[in-house]
Amino acid sequence: MRAAESGVVRVRNISTASNDSNLLTNLRTASNELLHPLILACATRHAKLVQIALQSIQRLVQHRVLEASCANVVVSELWGLVEVECEELRVLQTVPPLVSADLLVTGNTLAKCIVMCFRMHFAKDPVVINAASAAVRQLVGCVFERVIQEDGVFNNAELTVVASSGGRPSPRSAPPTLRPCAADAYMLFKDLCLLINAKPSVWLLGIHEMTRTLGLELIESVLKSYPGVFFR
């Protein structure tokens, strides 16, 4: 309760001391402090508190208040909720905006978001299954959409190549010549191919099952929707 009251007071103080030009910047600076009571509420696993907290987190994401440094904390807490099957629908409403917003989550944190939705795709509740199915498709599309946007930002720019340390490239990482969003897409596509062949994933850690039909459908979708990512 004290943490929540402190957060409300902090928002009011920032609002009073800011103008239209610096309000968002000041809120972002305090995003970790504003997020703290919401994380505590999620940690209670009390349904009503979790609902309110996740709605508030969605608002922070929607208004671009959440900083990338806070995203890992949010994803870890969402993962904990999925583990105990707490408010899965609310989690599914929170993950896609988090992934879609300003590259808040990348790399292993992004993989964790995708894994959460995959796991809920095999939940017991049909409503959760349907919502998770839509979320999985949305996240996979978002990963490849990011590559298009990244290429637009770095159009005609040279790739930053990470110097090789010698030896063969690790199968658990993307080629060092890829930019961050392209690296995420590479690892996702690679894991989808592994999973449909009943082999363990290397990036999407924690996926216990995936039907071959779903995997093939996702691969077909990205090949049709984002051919430019693959053919250059």
Automatic annotation (TrEMBL):
Residues 182-230 form the Mon2/Sec7/BIG1-like HUS domain. Keywords: Protein transport, Transport. GO terms for biological process: protein transport. InterPro entries: DCB_dom (IPR032629), Mon2/Sec7/BIG1-like_HUS (IPR032691). Residues 3-151 form the Mon2/Sec7/BIG1-like dimerisation and cyclophilin-binding domain. Pfam families: DCB, Sec7-like_HUS. This is Mon2/Sec7/BIG1-like dimerisation and cyclophilin-binding domain-containing protein. It comes from Cylicostephanus goldi (Nematode worm).
